[in-house]
Fold this sequence. Notes:
The chain is an alpha/beta fold. The protein has a single domain (2-225), classed as 3-Layer(aba) Sandwich (Rossmann fold). It contains eight helices and eleven strands. The protein has helices at 10-23, 50-59, 79-86, 92-105, 136-143, 157-170, 188-201, 220-225, and strands at 2-3, 28-35, 39-40, 47-48, 69-72, 108-111, 120-123, 133-135, 147-152, 175-181, 205-209. Strand 3 (39-40) and strand 4 form a beta hairpin. The radius of gyration is 17 Å and the shape is globular. The relative contact order is 0.17.
Amino acid sequence: MTGTGTDVGKTYVAALIVKKLRERGFDAGYYKPALSGAEVLPKSGELLAGDAAHVCAVSGLDRESNSLVSYIYKTPVSPHFASRLEGKPIRLEKLKEDFATARDKFSFLTVEGCGGIVCPLCMDETEENGQGRLLLEDVIAAFGLGVLIVADSGLGTINAVTLTAEYARQKGITVKGIIFNRYEPDNLMHSDNINAVELLTGIKVIARVPAGVDDLGFDADRLAELYAYGNE
């Protein structure tokens, strides 16, 4: 899952997806490569992977939330900058190992990206330590996945979704669907945004998620069909 930017509700939607699948009896899990802006636990001083904790709480996934995220940072900035500030560089090999472990544990694994599809995880100009620049798109490609795009339903989303979908296509990444978050059924602009996005991208909006709901509003069996492994 990728978003058209920050704060569009990827984690909220991811939790509903995992919840829907698990309620239907699917062996569904969750994984996130990197998280910044983590909560600091008051007693221990340890960092809490809040996104993963939210998904576990909503979906009933019985896992230690920090184990579902490879890199956790306190500083609420882009992962590449947080990793530099905190001295914990993100390495693709570890991401691939952790992803493979998570994939082997679950039949249906939801992978939530950080920020938008161009989110940088490493911006080294040289290849010291065996790695140079690393963007989220590189991680998606390395995992061999297609994506769902999560977008806000409001003003500006036509441009944001269209650019995200076109960028994914240019990078050879299949977009399997679009989910509109914070959707207002009586808002004519929201409805028109969906029509415009589908016309411009040729990609279906598979779910419209109003704010505060506890159900995705999308058939679990159809949702499971999107999980064919590989960028198909």
